[in-house]
Each structure stands twice: as C-alpha cells, then as structure tokens.
Amino acid sequence: ESLEHSLRAMLKLTSGLSNKHLKFNFSIYLDQLRELKEAKGDKNQLYSTHPNFLNRMQALIWFSMSNEYNEECKTGKKGVHDLKKIDEKIDESIKRVTGNEVTISNKEVFSRSLMWGTLSIFLADKKFTKKEQEIFQKNFGEKSTVSLVSLIKMSNPQLIENKIQNAFDDASKLLLDDKKRLYAELEKLLKVAQGDKEQLNAAMNKIKGCLKI
After folding, report:
1. Is the keyword Coiled coil in the record (predicted)?
2. pLDDT tens digit string along 115-144?
3. Which residues pair with 66 in a beta bridge?
4. N or C: lower Cβ tally within 10 Å for the chain?
C-alpha cells in the first residue's frame, strides 16, 4: 500500500495534475520505459515522455523488492535483491534509456574530473613538481599541462580549489559505475604522486566524499 501511495505522489508531482485527471495504471508507464529502452535513447523518443520520471518509478518499485526494504519495513516478505544489485539495475536502466547523447556528455565530465582530480592529488602538498608535471602531461597532453601550470602561477589557491570542486560536483551526478571507475583511475595516479602520504590520502578521501561512493 505504501508503495502505491509513493508512486501516486511521484506521478502527481511530475505531472502537476490532480487525481481526477490521472490514470494510476503503472503498468502503462513501465511499458513506456521498455519502449524507450528498445529505442536505445533515440532523441525523438527521449523527449516524447518523461524518462527521468519513468526511471524513478522503476527504481522505487525495485527498491520495494530489496532485502533491506522488506527487513526494515517488516513486510514478512523476502527481498529479491540487495541494494547493491538494485543500484546496478538502476544504472543499467538509465544507460539504456538515455543512449549515446548522455554517454558523450558523461565522458566529457569523466575526463574533466579525472584531470582536475589528478591535479588535486598532485597539489595535496601545495607543490606541482617537475616529475608530477611530466606524469600529468603524459596523461592529459602538453596543452593542458602548460595551461594549468600557468593558471597555478597566476591564480590564488582558492580559485584552483573552486575549479576542482566544480568538476566533482558534476562528477557526483555520474552513474555509480562511472564514479567507481573514476576513483579507481585516480588511485592509480596516487601511487606515483610525490608528497606526504597523509596529505595524499586526505585528498583521496575528499574526492571519495565528493563522488558520494
């Protein structure tokens, strides 16, 4: 019963309509979601309905089927999946609906966050050594390296910190798998960074917090 109430509330908030004008046949909306997945993110299909709402509705239904939900709410039922598996299913559903258009955007966010995250690690000790600059150039190219070295010299530390934070604000909206992959890439670069280990680990913990993983 509480699941149906939640779904009804979600539909009313999304549509702005009252009960009088809404049909609460949720199987119809799930059929729309399946059609969007089959269209593989075709742009015309993508904007013909509300894919974000449809994914949220599907996510809520899956959540109600989790072990954790049924244990916490004492439903007397056994869950189908744990929350980790539910997260994976939600990520996959979003990917199938949004298609290549969002994938390209996510790649740009991923690349930008990887670059600024690397800089954040290297600057943990307030220094950007020659060796670190060489590693940075190998990974991100000469143009980006020269540009960032100039920016560091001309700007105050807070401006650099703001740019790093902005990159990770965007990265926090990536799918969970992408965020984990980003963190794993940064962990590799942590091994070659110079400086105090405590400062480096603090930088990584901050990144982990920003990514919400």
Report:
1. yes
2. 999 999 999 999 999 999 999 999 999 999
3. 81
4. N
CB 175 within 8 A of CB 95: yes
- The DSSP symbol for 3 reads H
Contact 51, 36 (CB under 8 A): yes
Query: Measuring CA to CA, how many Å separate 85 from each of 34, 59, 82, 90, 96?
Result: 20, 12, 6, 9, 17
**What residues form DSSP beta bridges with 81?**
66
What Å distances lie between residue 139 and 11, 42, 113, 156, CA to CA? 46, 33, 13, 25
Hunting for tokens 């004008």 — which residue is that?
21
- Taking phi first (over 0 means left), then psi (-120 to 50 degrees means alpha), and beta for anything else, what does residue 137 get? alpha
Please name the amino acid found at residue 174. Answer: L
DSSP assignment, residue 81? Answer: B
Going by C-alpha positions, the residue among 56, 67, 64 that lies closest to residue 9 is: 56
Yes or no: say if 152 and 160 are a contact pair by the CB < 8 Å rule: yes
Helices (H), the chain: 2-15, 26-39, 43-46, 51-64, 67-72, 83-122, 130-140, 142-154, 157-171, 176-190, 197-211
Q: How far is it, in rounded angstroms, from Cα 167 to Cα 155? A: 17
Q: What number of other Cβ atoms are within 10 A of residue 213's Cβ?
A: 13
With CA atoms as reference, report the closest residue to 186 among 211, 153, 161: 211
